[in-house]
Amino acid sequence: MSDNHEFSSCDPGEWKKRKKVNYLMVSPQDIVAQGKCLCLQYIRFRLKRSGALNRKVIQRLRTITIDTPSTSTVIRDVFPILNGLGEELERMHPRVYSNVGRQLSRAWADLPEAETLSVLLAEVAKELFRGGASWARVISFCAVIGGVALDCVRLGRADALPRLVEVFGHVVEEDLMVWLEAKGGWKGLLAVRAAGAECTLMGWLSIGVAFLSAIYLASCILDSVRRLIF
Questions:
Q1: Do 225 and 112 share a structural domain?
Q2: Which intervals hold domain Bcl-2 Bcl-2 homology region 1-3 (predicted)?
Q3: Which structural domain, as residue segments, surrounds residue 207?
């Protein structure tokens, strides 16, 4: 029996189900790559909002290459929502998402080595998503990365920016993949925004508490790492 015949014999409800399944089928590789692209764009816009996007930084950002065949559509559709909600979150919790590096380490003037920075942010993510993932928490972690990026640039360490994008990709792969697959990938944010779900005022306020807990944990980890190194 031909595929055409198989589809022609389906009732409309069955056809809609198949269409929905096809929509939800996004490869893990695409989810990671798209996440890294969204993170890169969020960093760019966070630096621009803060007046820190100079020529040197732009050149460094351009060296970050992410190869995926289906990125441009996701960036066009999803990023404006991600960026808008992230900016709203930064306004609601200015103390949380400003000077993030100093919250992670009292000695932030000595920017941790790339590997240590990766461990810190990965642990912040694990604490943030310990109670489960949600779009509000995902956007919160984007804001964390954006805040750290700004701190790095202010310290003259734009060379750390590629590492931040890689860390975000690692977190997507290790901590968020199953949840994102269930949501149909990053485009699932479109449906959430349209429905107005998960983005209530109380939901955003709860993020501040969760993030402060994550910052405290990461600070303790950094202190332990420093004792081991020094």
A1: no
A2: 82-186
A3: 187-229
